């Protein structure tokens, strides 16, 4: 799980690649990357829907939302 992280000015901000690769995002900033969020080869990214994902070449949203408990 990525919680309260910033990923800026990279080729890819968040990458879930390959079967079984699971990333959960919460309170994170992903901006200024060539690709914001990438899911490939069976990988998946879920979000608590409280992230700032913008100003990437390709944002890679919307993401599957999960509930906050």
- Rounded to the nearest angstrom, the distance between the terminal CA atoms is 15 Å
Please tell me how large the radius of gyration is.
11 Å
Structural class call reads mainly beta
Share of residues in helices: under 10%
How many helices? The count is 0
Describe the structure.
With 69 residues, the protein is mainly beta. Helix content is 0%, strand content 49%. The radius of gyration is 11 Å and the shape is globular.
Primary descriptors:
mainly beta; three-stranded parallel beta sheet; 69 residues; globular; four-stranded parallel beta sheet
Please give a quick description of this structure.
The protein is an all-beta fold. It contains no helices and nine strands.
Helices and strands in order:
Blueprint: E1 2-3, E2 6-8, E3 12-17, E4 22-26, E5 29-31, E6 35-40, E7 44-47, E8 52-54, E9 64-65
Parallel strand pairs: 1-4, 2-5, 3-6, 4-7, 5-8, 7-9
């Amino acid at each position: 799980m990525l919680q309260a992280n910033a990923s800026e000015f990279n080729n890819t901000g968040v990458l879930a690649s390959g079967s079984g690769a699971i990333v959960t995002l919460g309170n994170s900033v992903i901006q200024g990357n060539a690709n914001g969020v990438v899911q490939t080869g069976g990988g998946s990214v879920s979000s608590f829907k409280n992230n700032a994902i913008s100003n990437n070449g390709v944002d890679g949203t919307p993401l599957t939302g999960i509930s906050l408990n």
